[in-house]
Design brief:
It is a single chain. The protein contains 3 helices and 7 strands, in the order βββαββαβαβ. It is of the alpha/beta class. The protein has one domain: Transcription Regulator spoIIAA (2-Layer Sandwich), CATH 3.30.750.24. It comes from Marinobacter salarius. One of its GO terms (molecular function) is anti-sigma factor antagonist activity.
Length: about 100
């Protein structure tokens, strides 16, 4: 499975790691990664260190996560992007909506 999750020791941060292609084929797995979680989760980290490709459906999935996590109050970090993925996020102005590292 190309999506793995890890919860911090205190249970407040959920890390979602995506391996390979982040596209429509991962839609359900990505939603399952955060929707069936615990109410204690207040921060989300999307780890893209092993992500090789990102398309418009992935951008939509990130927006769905943002809505789920509280919209403008959401605490979401997108981390470890390669240069191609980072360029797509930048062109899409996602640094306005997410903390990207």
């Amino acid at each position: 499975m190309p999506i793995h999750t890890h919860r911090s020791d205190d249970g407040q941060t959920l890390t979602i790691k995506i391996e390979g292609r982040f596209d429509f084929s991962t839609h359900q797995a990505f939603r399952d990664a955060y929707e069936h979680g615990d109410e204690k989760v207040s921060c989300f980290v999307v780890d893209l260190s092993d992500t090789t490709y990102l398309d418009s459906s992935a951008l939509g999935m990130l927006l769905l996560l943002r809505d789920y996590a509280g919209g403008d109050r959401a605490r979401i970090r997108i981390e470890n992007c390669n240069s191609d993925v980072r360029r797509i996020l930048s062109i899409s102005n996602f640094e306005q909506l997410f903390a990207i590292r």
